[in-house]
Write a structure and sequence with these properties.
This protein has about 260 residues and is an alpha/beta fold. The chain has a single domain (about 5-250), classed as NAD(P)-binding Rossmann-like Domain (Rossmann fold, 3-Layer(aba) Sandwich), CATH 3.40.50.720. Helices cover about 40% and strands about 15% of the residues. The protein has seven helices and seven strands. The chain has helices at about 20-30, 45-50, 65-80, 110-130, 155-175, 200-210, 220-230; strands at about 5-10, 35-40, 60, 85-90, 135-145, 180-185, 240-245. Strands 3-2-1-4-5-6-7 form a seven-stranded parallel sheet, with helices on both faces. The longest helix is centred in the middle third of the chain and has 22 residues, at about 110-130. The protein is globular. The N and C termini lie far apart (about 50 Å). About 45% of the residues are buried.
Length: about 260
Amino acid sequence: MLLEGKRLLITGVLTPQSIAFAVAEAAQNEGAEIVLTGFGRSQSLTERSAKRLPKPADVLELDVTNSAHFSALTESLRSRWGRLDGALHAIAFAPEDALGGNFLHTPWESVQTALRISTFSMKELAVAVMPLMTEGGSLVTLDFDNRIAWPIYDWMGVCKAALEATVRYLARDLGPKKIRVNALAAGPLSTLAAKSIPGFKSLEKLWGTQAPLGWESKDHHHYVARAACALLSDWFPATTGELIHVDGGFHAMGAPPVTPEP
């Protein structure tokens, strides 16, 4: 019961195939109380998924493009629990013209949308939950390592690189409050969001051949969930500002393996 007694906020649950759903499920199995967030037309999906957890969870409304929603979230959690121990940031979106090789021609309006939802929302969420973490806590965001340029990721790659920088600055500013902030970089996983990324299937195939531990995009959600639960627990008390990989070791390899000729 790694998270026994912990109270956690989990964003980003859409379907049971969501990475955030796997984290929510694992957190409950480890003893945590959780609340989910959803918004707009997709909130009904979140509410249906919430009923499929080991224990049905409440869903609070959070549209990250509406600043008033963050204030309301703080007050709702304060009245519910009084304190919060951790939060998962699993929110990202980019308009279609910001992905798939259109990097040089993406208009600012699309980039602005992607940055606000995928990157700035991490700061906004941190500010919203900070007053509730009176005994310290842990913030974890879901990432895709963007220290290199990917052929299909374009402006979402820029957003994720900015997210990684945001994690470091939040770690700096929240550390004195004993709040840890870390990013979890997973390999490609088959989710509703992944289906909207052009060329995802090619990346999916490549990953399994290069990762020394192998990789199954349909089966490894629980690996990421376990790592997230560990970061949300008390077992990483001196780790903050970090980018932690759960990708089968892909990030450490320089090139795809070469098969010797017979």
